[in-house]
Amino acid sequence: MIRRPYQPSSGLRLCQACELLSGRQWIRPANRSSAALHLGRRSARLSRTPLIQPVAARSFTTSQPCLKVKRSQEPQGPESSPSRFSRTGAAATYQPPGPDSAAVASAVDRVLRVFLGPSGVPSEATTLTALRGIAQIDVRPAPDVGVSRSEDSAAETRRPASQLLGLDDVAAKAGDAARPQRSPSQRSQDVVDKVSDAAYTIVTQPTVVITRTILAEYVQLQARLGRPQSLPQILDLYASKPKPKLVSGAIRYVERNPSKAESAVDPAVAETALGAAIEAKDLEAAIGILENTYAAKAFLRSKLIKKAFLPGFAVAGTPVAIYYAATQLAQMQHALEPKIATGFAFAGAICYVGFTATIGMVAHFTANDQMKRVTWALGTPLRHRWLHEEERAALDKIACSFGFSEEHRYGEEEGEDFLWLREYILSRSMILDAVDLMPGMN
Question: Over the stretch 108-146, which tens digit does the pLDDT of each residue have?
Fold first, then answer.
């Protein structure tokens, strides 16, 4: 809104009448402080300074120091300096510039043109370069400074006093001036959406092979942007996307088995994706990430290979080692025949090791000290508990994040989403907030 020049005749009496009717104290425009004028010149210089250089590999600044304007709580006389605390100075119209949407859009489009221009199957290094070029764009949201000058003026002129004095035309002009303006936070959200969509476009290209490094880079980028909605789909594509191959100048796609152990998502990447969904308070995305990571067949097979192969080999080799030890012990005595002594020693050692190992396994797999809200249902096999422990821990984290934080209020959550989460947990052979395991109920 453009401020009209000060007129000491009829305008003075009109402003005094407005202030008396609205209950606000009149402030002389001539008493503007030098600090407000200096800040106005500084904001004018900032508006002419280019904020973003259109190069994809360079970082982008998104915010400037924000000056919060406060209203004076006590009436001040005309001899004081009230313009420092009033909304009539240049400080009240200052807002942080935020990201330049046009410059960011041009930089992102340049990266997409360079990446999507060549034909053929791009290498992993080329895809990583494109993703990192987009990730270098600084899209930190700019803080809001509250109500702007034009919105405040429009609100003031819509008061009954302004209607009585015939100032409706001023209110209409102020509303028209404030309508096309967008706040810095809205411009920041537009930039974030632009960068997120560009990364999604790169990864979902049919000729792009999503490797572990590319998946980790994409998940970190979306987690930093706060956009986890596309993560379940990308995690599914990581395991099931057809692999392109260049054969005789033509691209052919080879189908993949999503249940193979090599298609499992790394636990660190899965934890980052789940944390991003929880931070964004997106329950649907969190469950989708869970189903494509911890609950997937590929993850379970990978866990069997990595964590159960060596213990299983040790269990299979234990009877052989015990029999060899029994034969050696049988040679050290002369009361029984060697074969009979070997049988006695072997049977005793097998019974001792078997019973001790069984008790230890039961104690290990039935421990619930790490469980907060989600526990296993009665009768769930031990092998199922061990295989799906990461899934249970993830559901426990989701329940604690979307429910009440106070422990004494566990189980009091209401709403359609949380009721659906409770039923989903029950369908996975788990119980949310088991009564017999709550504090004071056992």
Answer: 888 888 898 888 889 999 999 999 988 887 666 544 444
Residues 301, 259: contact at Cβ < 8 Å? yes
Residue 100 CA to its chain's centroid (Å): 23
Radius of gyration of the chain (CA): 34
| Phi, psi angles (nearest 5°) of residue 220 | -65, -40
Domain ranges within the chain, ordered by starting residue:
227-295, 299-358, 366-442
pLDDT of residue 423: 94
Burial tier of 56 (Cβ tally within 10 Å: 0-12, 13-18, 19+): buried
Per-residue 3-state assignment (H helix, E strand, C coil) for 322-364: HHHHHHHHHCCCCCCCHHHHHHHHHHHHHHHHHHHHHHHHHHH
- Residue 37 pLDDT: 36
Query: Which positions of the chain have pLDDT values less than 70?
Result: 1-100, 138-185, 442
Instruction: Write the secondary structure of the chain as one string of H (helix), E (strand) and C (coil).
Output: CCCCCCCCCHHHHHHHHHHHHHCCCCCCHHHCCHHHHHHHHHHHHHHHCCCCCCCCCCCCCCCCCCCCCCCCCCCCCCCCCHHHCCCCCHHHHCCCCCCCHHHHHHHHHHHHHHHHCCCCCCCHHHHHHHHHHHHCCCCCCCCCCCCCHHHHHHHHHCCHHHHHCCCHHHHHHHHHHHCCCCCHHHHHHHHHHHHHHHHHHHHCCCCCCCCHHHHHHHHHHHHHHCCHHHHHHHHHHHHHCCEEEEECCEEEEECCCCCCHHHCCCHHHHHHHHHHHHHCCCHHHHHHHHHHCCCCHHHHHHHHHHHHHHHHHHHHHHHHHHHHHHHHHHCCCCCCCHHHHHHHHHHHHHHHHHHHHHHHHHHHHCCCCCCCCEEECCCCCHHHHHHCHHHHHHHHHHHHHHCCCCHHHCCCCCCHHHHHHHHHHHHCCEEECCHHHCCCCC
CB 272 within 8 A of CB 395: no
Q: Residue 245: beta bridge partners?
A: 252
How many Cβ atoms from other residues are within 10 Å of residue 160's Cβ? 9
* CA angle centred on 194, ends 186 and 140, rounded to 5°: 55
Please state, in angstroms and rounded to a whole number, the distance separating the CA atoms of residues 356 and 98. 66
The angle, 0 to 180 degrees and rounded to 10, between the axes of the packed helices 389-402 and 283-292 is 170
State the Cα angle at 362 between 359 and 368, rounded to 5°: 135
